[in-house]
């Protein structure tokens, strides 16, 4: 190969960006992601409507008491869990798989954008849609279900549920890293619905056969539900740190699996 | 030619890239000089897009060194000097053209104004449209706008005019020529010699992972020029193949089919060597065919 030309690099220094510009980059990325999903009815309608509609059917139309449990409050906690894991699993799992298929992820990787901005934008979108559906659910619970809860407890419950989306973001990330486009939709549904049912999010866990009740410990959603039921006063003496530890372990596991999978290509 | 010294802004040095058992690039050296338009020309699957993927930090080489302004292109900060248009990238369908351009502008320290970018890419009228509501050609223009909005001194465009009609293609060529006049360095991949000829200062012909030829468009065209001679003769294949300028020899029925860069010289040698030569037919190669013969690709 003929390489006779003088080889020197005129600007061998990285171009800096100010902290303000970086902050703006992250904010723009998150805003664009939220805008994009907010305009996607196939994502927004099921995400927002399903938990509230199910709650209205099971807790409000058929009110009552299960021994020591107050049905409307109990299901408020478990449907709260159901509400926040949907956007996390779909946003990350399906979103990432679609972006890999469409070549958008490749374009983002050659653009001068830190890839963390992409993932943080998806987390922001999951949290925001989680928050919106929790507010709708709260309105149904307090307005129609007759649920009573001190403001402080309610705020704590909302915070726990929103933080609790992280293991499901990680799980979605892994699914999106493994599956292609439409396959990710199928896999997410196969995980989301059975996990929700078997973790006792739709019907209380004590309605299930003993074996399934014992098996519930394998689902991260069950652990988050235990925390939510504790915070809403339905369960006493919940081993809070055990559940938090398990949820953190799930998060770490799926993050590691996803990173391994994404690095391999 | 050039008076000022050439400065290299990006390059591959001894780069090999494999995908499993497939070698996409083999020990490739390539340098891009400031202010020039370099065309990577070759058939599909030649390794052009792989070279682009390496230079833009999306792929890692298995061997060799990739440099972008003296830096590793996988560094985000190194890529602030480049704008990239990929061959296949569907943008978020529900975002509007202006929103997409503004989003990509936020990735750069000193971007071009959004309105100016839209005008350059011919999108001013479409700024309020969602990406999903655009035609294929319009979507390509949005992708072009995203490459322009950073006001980067170096542009990478992968098959820029694929899917564009003739008019849109001319428009894009004009815009690229304008950017070059303003000092932007450009790397483009194409499988059309016509496109490389119209835009590039220098062409690198690449095929099956190797560089097959390099030079100015006129040099490449001269090298690619040629003809096919068909004739009946008792001469042996080795003898014909040894004549200077002969690229390939094959048997078609009773006749030899010989491809040569210099058909006049070939004819003189043949007629001297075999006065009984008969059934002669000479056919000029089209540029595209000649290029394929240059890269040695199978037809």
Characterise this structure.
The complex is a heterodimer of chains A (265) and B (299). Chain A contains eleven helices and two strands. Chain A is mostly helical. In chain A, strands 1-2 form a two-stranded antiparallel sheet. Chain A is elongated and about 75 Å long. Chain A starts with 18 loop residues before the first helix and ends with a helix. Chain B has 299 residues and is of the alpha/beta class. Chain B is 31% helix and 29% strand. In chain B, helix 2 crosses helix 3 (114-120). The chains are: A mainly alpha (265), B alpha/beta (299). The interface between A and B is large, with 37 and 51 residues.
Strand content of chain A: under 5%
Q: Cα-atom Rg of chain B, whole angstroms?
A: 23 Å
Structural class, judged by helices and strands of chain A?
mainly alpha
**Order of strands side by side in the largest beta sheet of chain B?**
5-6-7-3-8-9
Overall mean pLDDT score of chain B? Answer: 88
Class of secondary structure makeup of chain B: alpha/beta
- The DSSP helix count of chain B reads 10
The share of residues in helices of chain A is over 70%
Question: What do the pLDDT scores of chain A average to?
Answer: 90
Beta-strand content estimate of chain B: 25-35%
Count of DSSP strands of chain A:
2
- Quaternary form: heterodimer
Roughly how much helix do the residues of chain B carry, as a percent range? 25-40%
The low-confidence parts of chain A are 1-6
- Count of beta strands of chain B: 13
């Amino acid at each position: 190969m003929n390489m006779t030309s003088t080889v020197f690099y005129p600007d061998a220094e990285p171009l800096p960006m100010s902290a303000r510009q970086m902050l703006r980059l992250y904010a723009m990325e998150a805003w664009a992601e939220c805008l994009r999903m907010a305009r996607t009815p196939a994502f927004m309608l099921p995400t927002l409507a399903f938990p509230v509609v199910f709650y209205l059917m099971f807790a409000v139309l058929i009110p009552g008491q299960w021994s020591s449990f107050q049905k409307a409050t109990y299901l408020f906690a478990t449907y709260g869990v159901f509400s926040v894991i949907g956007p996390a699993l779909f946003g990350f799992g399906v979103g990432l798989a679609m972006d890999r298929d469409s070549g958008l992820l490749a374009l983002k990787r050659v653009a001068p954008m830190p890839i963390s901005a992409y993932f943080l934008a998806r987390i922001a979108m999951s949290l925001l849609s989680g928050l919106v559906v929790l507010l709708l659910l709260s309105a149904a619970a307090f307005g129609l279900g007759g649920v009573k809860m001190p403001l402080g407890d309610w705020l704590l419950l909302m915070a726990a549920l929103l933080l609790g989306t992280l293991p499901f973001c990680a799980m979605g990330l892994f699914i999106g890293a493994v599956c292609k486009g439409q396959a990710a939709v199928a896999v997410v549904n196969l995980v989301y619905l059975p996990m929700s049912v078997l973790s006792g999010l739709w019907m209380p866990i004590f309605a299930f056969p003993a074996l399934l009740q014992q098996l519930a410990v394998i689902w991260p959603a069950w652990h988050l539900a235990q925390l939510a039921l504790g915070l809403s006063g339905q369960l006493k003496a919940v081993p809070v740190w055990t559940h938090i530890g398990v949820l953190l372990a799930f998060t770490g596991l799926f993050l590691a699996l996803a990173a391994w999978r994404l690095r391999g290509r | 030619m050039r008076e000022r010294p050439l400065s290299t802004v990006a390059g591959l040095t001894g780069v090999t890239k494999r995908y499993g058992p497939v070698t996409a690039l083999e020990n490739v050296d390539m340098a891009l000089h400031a202010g020039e338009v370099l065309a990577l020309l070759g058939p599909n699957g030649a390794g052009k897009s792989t070279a682009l993927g390496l230079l833009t930090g999306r792929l890692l080489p298995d061997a060799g060194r990739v440099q972008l302004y003296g830096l590793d292109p996988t560094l985000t900060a190194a890529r602030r000097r480049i704008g990239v248009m990929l061959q296949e990238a569907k943008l978020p369908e529900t975002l509007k053209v202006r929103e997409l351009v503004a989003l990509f502008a936020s990735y750069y320290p000193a971007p071009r104004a959004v309105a100016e970018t839209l005008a350059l890419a011919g999108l001013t009228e479409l700024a309020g449209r969602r990406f999903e509501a655009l035609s294929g050609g319009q979507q390509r223009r949005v992708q072009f706008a995203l490459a322009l909005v950073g006001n980067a001194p170096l542009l990478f465009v992968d098959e820029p005019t694929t899917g564009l009609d003739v008019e849109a293609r001319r428009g894009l060529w004009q815009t690229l020529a304008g950017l070059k006049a303003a000092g932007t360095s450009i790397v483009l991949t194409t499988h059309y010699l016509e496109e490389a000829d119209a835009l590039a200062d220098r062409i690198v012909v690449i095929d099956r992972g190797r560089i097959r030829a390099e030079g100015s468009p006129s040099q490449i065209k001269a090298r690619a020029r040629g003809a096919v001679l068909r004739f009946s003769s008792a001469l042996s294949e080795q003898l014909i193949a040894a004549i200077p300028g002969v690229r390939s020899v094959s048997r078609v029925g009773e006749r030899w089919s010989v491809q040569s860069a210099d058909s006049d010289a070939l004819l003189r040698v043949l007629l001297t060597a075999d006065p009984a030569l008969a059934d002669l037919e000479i056919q000029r190669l089209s540029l595209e065919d000649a290029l394929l013969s240059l890269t040695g690709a199978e037809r």
